[in-house]
Amino acid sequence: MIFVTVGSRNYPFDRLFIKLDELYEKGFLTDSIFAQIGTSTYKPIHYEYKNFISNEEFDEKVKEANIVVSHGASGSIMKALNAGKPVITVTRLEKYGEHINDHQIQNNKAFADNGYVIPVYEMDELETAFKNIYEESKTLKPWENKDPMAIVNMIDHFIKENW
Fold it and tell me: pTM of the prediction?
């Protein structure tokens, strides 16, 4: 099962859910999907979804999942990584009205540059990301969250080095 989560902020992420349906329609995706779609207005056709789920249901879906697809929020990403799941991170972009700015680019790039996730910045990269996660999930670096400040330090280091 693929678990897709986009959080609860008041920003739709229709592009992601439309693309997932397109990948089903072309026969590329065949695994079952459960998506937490938040305030998105697009209603998926080929997979189950709910707008919002409880923290307990979130944890259960992560536990059941073979793959987690998350927007670029570090909390959602780390919950999936802490559960040992391979993660595709899909970036919400300001230009599409999906967030107030493009900070998720930096989040996703920091996780990806450290080998923890496979990032997607534009939807035409999603199919390749799935191919990579199916073929390379064993080569993703295991997440070890011994330091509660690890993600803050990782992102801070990335920003200092790249911006």
Answer: 0.85
